[in-house]
Amino acid sequence: MYQPPKYKNNDPEYIFRSIKQHPFATVVMRGEELLATHIPVLVDGTASDYKLFAHIANHNPMREHLMDHKEMLLIFKGPDAYVSSSWYADPNIPTWDYTAVHINAKIQLQTEEELHWSLDQLIDHFEKDQSHPIASKDIPDDMWAENFKNITGFWLFPFKAVGIEKLHQGFEKKDIITIKKKLNDTAECPLHPISKLLNEKHDL
């Protein structure tokens, strides 16, 4: 990851929180060419000691390259927003505010039992806020069995974790307040996620 010093954030708590808040990741690994796919990735552990887990379909071209000890890059992208030149008190270049975390990890294929556990965790995690949540036990056995045989689960053990928060650090507070207002005035988004992060970063 390119990390300009003033935007760099490798704090383990920030990285761990970002993974939990933005679990739909882009994962990249090398096959005969670079391969990428988009999957939910969950975390197990604490900010100082954790592993990740996920699964992919067996017909995904990435599957044949998925093996123990191979490296995978995971990209967890947070909110982003275009910032117009016209939003500054004095003319400035347009830019983009964003947050992201990159994790380099080693793969370990899951056993069938571990895959069962990780699917239970995945379903529980995303169902818990539904008005009528379901559990894996609520899925018909034949449907579960048919889908289970067509996926491969894996653990990911991080060995490098880096993050970035590009949120107008070093700019005048009056410009940051204007940027926040312009983002919140966007018709389709009454409270822009980048505006919320600007609030937190700059104590607005």
Give the structure's gist in a few sentences.
By secondary structure, the chain is an alpha+beta fold. The chain is 27% helix and 35% strand.
Q: Care to describe what's here?
A:
The protein has a seven-stranded antiparallel β-sheet. Helix content is 27%, strand content 35%. It is built from five helices and seven strands; from the N terminus they run αββββββααβαα. 21% of the residues are buried. The model has no long low-confidence stretch (mean pLDDT 92). The chain is an alpha+beta fold and 204 residues long. The protein has helices at 12-21, 112-127, 141-148, 173-184, 193-202; strands at residues 24-30, 34-40, 42-46, 49-57, 71-83, 95-109, 151-166. The protein has a single domain, classed as Pnp Oxidase, Chain A (Roll), CATH 2.30.110.
